[in-house]
Design brief:
This protein is an all-alpha fold. The chain contains 4 helices and no strands.
């Protein structure tokens, strides 16, 4: 998946009405609006959240070095 798509989704999420928006059922969600307007495809949306869930799972692992190596391999690790 293209990192630009992930940046686009993260930028869209900053325009949601609620800062803790899950982009599923909240009103005034910029991500849901982009989906309904065809600006963002469902494939991109699902890939983004699949990778986010995987990243969260990996970060919960006890062996942090192994987790970071795995994330780098999958290109999920983004340095601040």
């Amino acid at each position: 998946m293209n990192d630009l798509i992930f940046v686009e989704i993260e930028n869209l999420s900053r325009m949601c009405k609620f800062t803790n928006c899950s982009h599923t059922k909240e009103p005034h969600c910029a991500v849901k609006n982009a989906l309904s307007e065809g600006v963002l495809s469902y494939d991109e949306y699902y890939a983004y959240y699949r990778d986010k869930r995987e990243e969260e799972h990996i970060l919960k692992q006890k062996n942090k070095t192994k987790a970071v190596d795995y994330m780098k391999q999958r290109k999920l690790f983004r340095e601040a």
